[in-house]
Amino acid sequence: MDTRDKILEVTAELVMRDGYNAFSYKDISKKIGIKTSSIHYHFPTKSDLILSLLQDACVKQNEIISAVEASTPLKKLDVFMDFYLSLARQGKICLVVALLSDINSMDSRVKDELKSFYELLINWLQSILEDGLKREQMVFATTPLIKATEIMSAVAMIPILSRIGTDQSFEQIVESIKNSIINN
């Protein structure tokens, strides 16, 4: 892994753990063992860094979508929801949620890229639900977009709620969400 990739990896960790405004180039340099000037070489501004992080996240998400393209809608839904459960187990929150909380302090390029990444996620979930309806594997009373937004809102909260150490079984919540739309 080259320096640029290490910087992005550590940035993702910091953002998903602490948020956009809670980390600095100094935090990254300490974790990697490089000077902040090396970070500025690759990413002159924090906006450049977050923009690259979001672009890389889009690429990775598209790889996931492609990898499960031939799968059933239920398998795709499992992949989508398991991601949020995995974040909760790691004490992290999703990149979109982590960045949205500080969106007012971001420049327009980052806001636009964040919106694009969110749209990628919500459109994928919407397409999973549309396919599930078409195959009669899923049933729900709203439009696929509204249901996708409802599901995304619920599962994106799981990693956040896990931070307060509730006794809730998040796996059971995810199963309940899935069972509410599966056509038995």
UniProtKB/TrEMBL annotation:
This is HTH tetR-type domain-containing protein. Keywords: DNA-binding, Transcription, Transcription regulation. Gene3D superfamilies: Tetracycline Repressor, domain 2 (1.10.357.10). It comes from Sphingobacterium pedocola. It holds the Pfam family TetR_N. Residues 24-43 bind DNA. PANTHER family: HTH-TYPE TRANSCRIPTIONAL REGULATOR YJDC, TRANSCRIPTIONAL REGULATORY PROTEIN. The keyword Transmembrane helix does not apply. SUPFAM superfamilies: Homeodomain-like, Tetracyclin repressor-like, C-terminal domain. Residues 1-61 form the HTH tetR-type domain. InterPro entries: Homeodomain-like_sf, HTH_TetR, Tet_transcr_reg_TetR-rel_C_sf.
